[in-house]
Protein 1
Amino acid sequence: MAMPITSSVSTLVQSLGEIPPNSVIFGKSEAMQALRQRLDKVASANVPVLINGESGTGKDIIARMIHSHSPWRTGPYVKVNCPAIPGTLLESELFGYEKGAFTGAYGTKPGRVEMAHRGTLFLDEISELDMSLQSKLLQLLQDGQFCRIGAQEDKKVEVRIVCATNRLLEQEIENGTFRQDLYYRINVVNLHMPALRERRADIEDLANYFLEYYNRKFNCRARALSADLTGVLQKYHWPGNIRELENLIKRYVILGTEEVITTDLVAKEPEYFTPEINLDGPISLKKVTRQATRELERKIILKVLQAHHWNRKQAARTLSISYRALLYKIRDAGLPPNRTSRRRPEVVPSNGAAAD
Ligand SMILES: Nc1ncnc2c1ncn2[C@@H]1O[C@H](COP(=O)(O)OP(=O)(O)OP(=O)(O)O)[C@@H](O)[C@H]1O
Ligand SMILES: [Mg+2]
């Protein structure tokens, strides 16, 4: 017989935390506007949602938004990070247990499924559930029932399930590691998070948002990014998506120099200065090559200056050019003229915050 759940355990119920304003979250790119419309429609309907997208694209934020727009928005929001809980513990974390269910089960413990009653259960990295847990989750999705470990009876919960993954679940199904029937149940509505490189129109606004946010948070006064650097951010391919951009700006705010960003990007992706070539129309080989050479030159000068602690005379010798020519190139490339002109944060954060 199914038993209604009356108890609510609040310790593991998560606070929704700080979410950037909608104008920042969705930006102005087409991909995000389409996502926003879809989100508006699904949030109010109590159906399971599967969010997929690369790491750092904002799946967590969107899951929280689904909850805060759902009919159960005043109910609990419970997140389970599946890979963070060892396989053997995951079943008891999710479904709870009865006293004596196994050695060490001295009392009864409700699982997170119960804690999410009349709220949202967010299962992050769903592909990490093993087959037996997938079966239990399927039962929960099919008839809203589950069984604590060691219990005689099923319990009934009303819960909205939101899952996220950065894997291709279709591939996992083909590999035999994910149940197809579960996939159909969790994927009633799919929200695909675009990668940052697919929404370049939003990069500048996101960077400015993080700049303002971390200036305020760390009580720093890092200046607006230069046009040159903004151009670089627009071109970079962002494998770590918004998280990578956020961390980069955080480092810039704390350390106070644009060099921090440039060096970081050059080290990660030496090819990122390669200009994008649009094959739809005629290409000016001369123009593209000139642009690429200029950018490559900037990169080399920056590295040599850093290696010589910004001693321009030594750098000029190493580069086999005259001192005057180096000064001209530094100015032309938009690099800072000397070490002292590189900005420092006005106030060093006192909370020990460090760059990632
Ligand atoms: N649209 C957005 N606007 C502003 N900040 C965002 C946005 N999306 C994500 N972020 C920020 O980027 C970081 C990564 O986001 P989030 O944790 O939601 O990504 P994720 O897709 O869940 O990544 P993972 O797959 O690694 O868990 C967070 O600090 C978040 O605040
Ligand atoms: Mg996440």
Note: Residues 59-60, 124 surround magnesium ion (ligand 2) (CB under 6 Å).
Protein 2
Amino acid sequence: MNELSQRYSRPRWDYLGETKSGILTIEGLPVTEIAKKYGTPCYIMVERAIRQRFREFKAAFPYPKLRVQYASKCNSNLEIMRIANQEGVELDASSIGEVILALLADFSPHEITLTNLYKTPQDILFAVKVGVLAITADSLEDLELIAQVGKSINKKIRIFIRLTPTIDLGQYTTRKVQYGIPYAQYKKACDFAARSPYLNPIGLHFHGPYVYNPKVYFIAAKKLVDVAEYMIREHNQKISYIDLGGSFPVAYGDTEVFHPRDMGKKFSDYFVKLIYKANLPLPYLVFEPGKFFVANTGVGLTRVISKKLRRTTTLVVDGSTYAFLPDPIIYEDAVYDILPASKMQQRRSQHYKIAGCTCDCIDTICKSVHLPQTKPGDLLAIMDCGAYSNTIASNFNSLKRAPMVMVNEEGVARLIRRRDRFSDMFAPELDVLKVADPHELQRYYNLFRVNINKMWGEHKEKKSPVRGRFSSQSKRRAKKSPPAQPLATPDLSNPITTATT
Ligand SMILES: Cc1ncc(COP(=O)(O)O)c(C=O)c1O
């Protein structure tokens, strides 16, 4: 096993290497083995790197009352959440679904906060009953709703008040974000929360859009500490938590971004000074990053399925921006590093466009990447895609979303999420059909009669590499393979009884 060749290496990918024959390895495991066992496309997460990111973040802030939460919206895989838990990190849930996942991942309720823009009374009741640390109120309306729910159960509900101060720093601005209570309304929000017999405002919250400049956290801290001072002065209400959100940057391609350790010590000292100056008791300082922990620790493995001669030669792969890597269709400037996973030692000689496999012309994973001569069957590794890929991916074109594999330090891979099944994908409609009027069923007869998953399993997907060329040998093989079994003609006379067979 070799180190990754210089032309591809980046310090953040210390888990990559390559075999003597030029196959990319992850923690020493050749990706061809992962492709063979789990198929492509698939996500590969690197356990050691994830743990390291959690530890680096915690070590960056020498503040005595630091609480780090994982914003699971960026990758809510249960195993990753369990690793966060083992690493002493708490959880920022953006929905009741994520609260439930957090409980499944063994977080204690008091390690979970629920922060989002929209919650129903039932969501609030559920979160209170579970006993989450706090529910974050995102608007004046949200505050009122939470208070109403508190009244209905005669309980004071622990809340964080989410505020959005205006911060303009060069290109950076919070002016366009829709979340949080505008800072100009903080007194209104605080007065309401402090006076309500059904709210216990224990924390203040801020989350800004993608932070390029650490000064954002310094400015936000000052604004929130001012509000904490207001709360104690006007209402004798102690603020025990100051939450400054996530949005720590991650490197994609050759962009350089600040690391929490570059600002953590200075920020911690500054924050302590702010608190002492305001004569407040030291609150917990909360951060809730998502992508910082997992973006650079995930690799997307995909296989080239065809090559098309266009102005820029186009390689179509078996992943897509919809079901696999949605970032490029959400952010115009999203650019992944793409490595020739099965040809790491060959000289780069050509620029290719990498297109996803749906019939949509915007399904472009990368407009231009420099690679060795590449042909159908070759594997490509899409780097730094561990955050906001699987959780945003959809079943557009009724494609299955990819499985996720975790590779440990010894180079052992295990499945941590299976590929979608047709039955998962169609359940919302099939469930409706099941309870439809029996006469209606005739129209959907085939869906009932055929066990789709079983049929699919019988004609299992081939996981062996795609042939590079449609050779005469492969044509011969194609002729020899047995003809597909025709479906028996359905007997429509009694759809219900036949449906169960
Ligand atoms: C409230 C809140 N906290 C944390 C995060 C995590 O952000 P990031 O993954 O950019 O760190 C988000 C992302 O949208 C968020 O809305």
Note: Residues 215-235 form the longest helix (21 residues).
